[in-house]
Specification:
Chain lengths: ~160, ~180
């Protein structure tokens, strides 16, 4: 009985392997560089049918078709940019997980940088203002007391 | 007091951002224009569903405003959409079908059962024309003008009211 349960548990552990194998084909590549490019491209192209999945992760038929095209074009010696252009001309900018830097996307790319810059400016201004206030706030009396304290430490 | 108001700026920024995100909740992600809008219908050379000996190409679409409907026997929405397409054909719109990722046998059975509003059906078993059209499901419908330029694109089901409200006005618009 115990052996049976152990066997079943071991089989259960293998289940995730099955899930991973589903839908994603095994491809042959001549060199590891092309294989890496294939992995990168299929991870950066978004499946048009399934909103939030890369074509490399999706079981949907259109994602499979797109992977086929990526593979064939890599074998034909096309560049990454040519392959991405090929997809965009059919499915639109939607399929790019990384939007391109162009007139329309300037705000998208520029806003975060602008906000970080703005934040830095605000911090600098605040630190400066605070420093000036604290420097001004010491009256003669306070300054004398501060000097006395410092001197006491020194004399001890 | 004025400096105090400045402290509300981040809250304002948050509200603006929140507004955008809230609007995004009710947007339909499949409501996006085809990348082929205002571009030429992609070149193709395929046989017809009706006749495996007859090859057709882009010249099929020249000379008249045509509604190209991508369908397949495996697609349930295409069956629901059929009455609307028959209605459009009755109203004098020229329709051409693309039988997408289908077998000849099943495609023919489908037309026999649900009606055939198409002048001719382009047979696309591998989905190659569909791919060049950027089709990622069926049904999808493209309006092509007399010069073979794609002028309107409809993703998914054509509702009965879409016939009068959107499709027919678009057809009229590109006829002149």
């Amino acid at each position: 009985m115990a052996r049976l349960i152990r066997g079943l548990l071991a089989a259960l552990l293998l289940l995730p392997l099955l899930a991973q194998a589903a839908g994603i084909e095994v491809r042959q590549f001549d060199d590891p560089v092309t294989e890496q490019r294939y992995q990168d491209l299929t991870a950066s192209l978004r499946c048009p049918k399934c909103e939030n999945q890369a074509i490399g992760d999706s079981d949907s038929p259109i994602a499979g078709d797109m992977r086929d095209r990526v593979y064939v074009q890599l074998q034909d010696g096309r560049s990454d940019k040519e392959i991405l252009d090929f997809m965009v001309s059919r499915f639109g900018d939607y399929v790019l997980y990384n939007p391109r830097l162009e007139g329309r996307t300037l705000l998208l790319w520029g806003l975060p940088a602008a906000l970080v810059l703005l934040g830095a400016v605000v911090v600098v201004l605040m630190v400066r203002a605070r420093r000036r206030i604290s420097a001004r706030a010491l009256s003669t009396e306070e300054r004398d007391r501060l000097d006395a304290l410092i001197n006491r430490e020194r004399n001890e | 007091m004025k400096r105090r108001l400045l402290l509300l700026l981040p809250l304002l920024g948050f509200l603006v951002l929140g507004g955008f995100l809230y609007q995004g909740l009710s947007m339909n992600p499949f409501d996006r224009d085809s990348a082929l809008m205002a571009r030429e219908f992609p070149a193709f050379e395929l046989t017809t569903l009706e006749d495996s000996e007859r090859t057709v190409d882009g010249s099929l679409l020249e000379g008249e405003v045509t509604l190209v409907n991508v369908w397949g026997e495996w697609c349930p929405t295409c069956k629901q959409e059929m009455p609307q397409l028959l209605d459009l054909a009755d109203r004098g719109v020229r329709l051409i079908g693309v039988d997408y990722k289908d077998t000849r046998e099943k495609g023919r059975e489908f037309l026999a059962e649900f009606g055939n509003p198409f002048e001719v059906n382009v047979f696309d078993p591998d989905g190659s024309l569909g791919f060049d059209l950027g089709v990622y499901g069926a049904p999808e419908t493209f309006l092509v003008d007399a010069d073979g330029i794609i002028r309107y694109h409809h993703t998914g089901y054509i509702k009965p009211e879409d016939v009068r409200e959107t499709i027919l006005p678009e057809v009229e618009k590109w006829r002149d």
